[in-house]
Design goal:
By secondary structure, the chain is of the alpha/beta class. The chain has twelve helices and eight strands. The strands form two sheets. The protein has a six-stranded parallel β-sheet. The chain has a two-stranded parallel ribbon with strand order 1-8. Helix 2 packs antiparallel against helix 11.
Length: about 300
Amino acid sequence: MSRPITIVEVGPRDGLQNEKAVLDPAVRADLVRRLEAAGARRIEAVSFVHPKYVPQMAGAEEVMAALPHETGRSRIGLVLNGKGYDRALGTAVDEVNVAMSATDGFGLKNQGLSVDQQVQMLADIVAGRANANGAAGATPSLSATLSCVWGCPFDGEVSVDQVADLVGRIAALGVAEIALADTIGVGNPWAVTRMVEAARKAAPDSRLRLHFHDTRNTGLANAYAGVEAGVDVLDASVGGIGGCPFAPGATGNIATEDLVYMLERAGFSTGYDLDALIATARWIGEKIGRPAPSALSRAGGWPKG
């Protein structure tokens, strides 16, 4: 049997948040449905942030209202603080992903919080979950994503020890899944291997997830290194759209269809329909007013003779 790799689709959130086009909630919900039809089982569907700062994510509640709960599918809502978490509980999200930063510089710019303040914020959310119930009747599962793990646009280099210490603090709070994100796309495969090894040692009981940007054309190589290091959960964005509006020059997520192609050709199992993904990438390109930058949206999959 081939080794299964879970690809968390982040296009509806991390993909669209950095695009100039502001799509209506109905269109964003349609994107989620198309991605699920293409095989996505975990989707970062919305972000509960103030529309003043990220207008592309306005109407998160409307998006979720258009997506009735379905068994076997998990819709994730990103939050930056306790207020966002409370908003998420008012919807039918299945998971809440708490965004954090490995550096004070990015944390203060993105959330107005230092690293220590972010850890306290997460601790408060964890403590409050015991008495919380989501709109679907159950408390959503909780994960955390660390931004700027391989480099920060404000603080520069980020050490392995710095990240490992923070991963250990998050794991100690009982967070079951921790994502390591290369927010500005400066990582390389060897650095990925070192970071994964250190994070696993710091949090042996937590599941690791990896989030790469292809800003400097190393995204797929870094994904390969992560898989070789034993990580089974990777983020990707349909069409390779997106980036981070708070990190200068942070463009280009790994394209879901490019990642699926690489993994499936190597014998891994992803559960995605590649042709449907390519069609969705081209569709969202039309909606945002520019061709999706992924390789497969241009070239297609393996040639069918």
